[in-house]
Amino acid sequence: MAYDVDNAARSLEQADPRDIIREAVAGFDRIALSFSGAEDVVLVDMVADLGGDVQIFCLDTGRLHPETYRFLDKVRDHYGMDIELMFPDAEAVQQLVREKGLFSFYRDGHQECCAVRKIEPLRRKLATVDAWITGQRRDQSPTRAEVPVVQNDRAFSAPGHPLVKFNPLANWSSEQVWAYIAEYQVPYNELHERGFKSIGCEPCTRPVAPHEHERAGRWWWEAATQKECGLHITNIREADIKPVRESA
Ligand code: SF4
User: Fold this and answer.
1) Using CA atoms, how far apart are residues 218 and 231, in angstroms rounded to an integer?
2) Given CB 3.0 to 4.6 Å as the disulfide criterion, which of 31, 172, 188, 229 pairs with 176?
3) How far is the CA of 35 from the centre of ligand 1 (A)?
4) Ligand 1 centre and the CA of 113: distance in Å?
């Protein structure tokens, strides 16, 4: 029987993130956790504590900070867990770089590069599971302000293959995330100590000032309403997502 997303979203709306993860694991045998290498490690910690067969993966775009690569291995060692690295298609990267160079995103927008380095590997991974867990929070950006705790993933479902997305931290603030990290001594990316808040690829991430929003350091040359790389494209209005759809 198909998973009742609407009912789950209603009943879990105010639930503790651990209860949302429990519900996700109970509902799906093939489920994965997307670990971005930043504070999503809170979810890794919860999954490690709760047990259950959750695949953990990270998109290795080839453009991450050295600190992030070191952090990935630190998390792997700390929890004794496998973190599957998903790499982009080599020929697609070569073609993009051959045609446009290594920094085309500053000129043409980030979506084309993200489509090659993030979306295609993500789509490949999500084709192997029926649900995934993400670290999205409503307070992260205007594009995430209405993220539900459970939703049908319109972007990555395919005919005959519905995909459900769980966002256990949707109701959490950045402060709650960092309180958890401190309380449970969870490892974190050392870049956070140097002013980085939301961490993505090295050329597309910069530190932010204390008064700036945490996503202000991502794709800072673009409008806040466009700051999704395609992983969570369902957060952007239909009218605004044409370039990503076309290149993904
Ligand atoms: S974040 Fe930047 S470097 Fe990384 S995939 Fe997107 S555009 Fe390319």
Assistant:
1) 14
2) 172
3) 16
4) 6
Q: Is the CB of 119 under 6 A from ligand 1?
A: no
Q: Please state, in angstroms and rounded to a whole number, the distance separating the CA atoms of residues 166 and 54.
A: 13
pLDDT tens-digit series, residues 102-120: 999 999 999 999 999 999 9
Q: Both tokens of residue 159?
A: 């005919």
Decide whether any atom of ligand 1 lies within 6 Å of the 114 Cβ.
yes
Mind listing the pLDDT tens digit for each residue in 144-188? 778 999 999 999 999 999 999 999 999 999 899 999 999 999 999
109 within ligand 1 shell (Cβ under 6 A): no
Distance from C-alpha of 17 to C-alpha of 15, rounded to nearest angstrom: 6
H-state helical runs in 144-205: 174-183
Contact 117 CB / ligand 1 (< 6 Å): yes
Give the integer Cα–Cα distance in Å for 142 and 73: 32
The model's pTM: 0.88
Best CA proximity match to 72, nearest among 60, 61, 63, 62: 60
Tell me which CATH code domain 5-242 carries. Answer: 3.40.50.620
